[in-house]
Design goal:
The chain is of the alpha/beta class and 217 residues long. The chain is built from 7 helices and 10 strands. Helices cover 45% and strands 20% of the residues. A hairpin with a 2-residue loop joins strand 6 and strand 7. It binds adenosine-5'-diphosphate and guanosine-5'-monophosphate.
């Protein structure tokens, strides 16, 4: 049964933080719907050696062209609840009326192997991840203009008119929250330039982390 008292977001498995090997890093990518997060993340994992793009679990309906296990793991609400109860999710949140969560096992494997785990999640989830991994790299993607964001969201054509409007309305709220909690804001005007900038941010964070690790050894 779906818990009536379930909080909007939570860290079901957050008390268990796995060991990060040198070079191991969690990267959170957030931003308004339609800004280009998925496009950026796909390019990003091609550019970084040894990066893993986390596949979230969601109760949202599968959109046209989306593939189970590639874009998301599409599950029922009961199944999502089961995964929370079993501590299988690193974080989860309700976004636009559906639940989304990050499977814990693959992120653990990735960072203990010294690799980079890329999480494309919302700001509520990002804050939960930062609480678990204080050195997570927090990147928020902005559109060059609101009009451009609207064009991209409509151009993608996945949502109906009302759902698209709701997503656009949330963009300002999410961006305001991000100014408080994200240390990097990247404007996605040109996709290649945005990905280049994110690669530079991640490389420099990895170098810093390795230097700290070396000093500790
Ligand atoms: P999100 O994952 O943030 O919801 P998507 O990656 O699905 O966004 O991108 C939404 C639409 O915007 C897609 O049609 C994508 O091809 C397009 N897009 C992404 N980045 C750019 C860009 N820099 N310039 C123009 N269109 C873009
Ligand atoms: P979409 O339905 O457009 O694929 O995603 C809607 C929102 O849910 C986006 O802001 C996306 O970043 C967020 N999201 C996707 N997966 C997760 C997740 O595992 N956890 C959280 N907290 N948000 C997610």
């Amino acid at each position: 049964m779906w818990s009536e008292g379930l909080s909007m977001s939570g860290t079901a498995a957050s008390s268990v933080r796995s060991r990060q090997a040198p070079g191991g890093l969690v990267v959170v990518i957030s931003g308004p719907s339609g800004v280009g997060k998925s496009t950026i993340c796909r390019e990003l994992v091609k550019r970084l050696d040894n990066a893993y793009l986390s596949v979230s679990v969601t109760t949202r309906q599968k959109g046209a062209g989306e593939v189970d296990g590639r874009d998301y793991w599409f599950v029922s609400r009961d199944e999502f609840q089961r995964r929370i109860d079993k501590g299988l999710l690193l974080e989860y949140a309700e976004v636009f009326g559906n639940f989304y969560g990050t499977p814990k096992d693959k992120v653990d494997e990735t960072i203990t192997a010294g690799r980079v785990a890329v999480l494309e999640i919302d700001v509520q989830g990002g804050r939960q991840i930062k609480a678990i991994y204080p050195d997570a790299v927090m990147i928020f993607i902005l559109a060059p203009t609101h009009k451009e964001l609207e064009g991209r969201l409509h151009g993608r054509g996945r949502e109906d008119e009302e759902a698209a409007r709701h997503r656009l309305e949330q963009a300002g709220t999410e961006t305001a929250a991000a100014w408080q909690h994200y240390e990097h804001m990247v404007i996605n005007a040109d996709i290649k330039e945005a990905v280049d900038e994110i690669v530079r941010i991640i490389e420099s964070a990895r170098t810093r982390r390795k230097a700290i690790g070396d000093k500790r050894d």
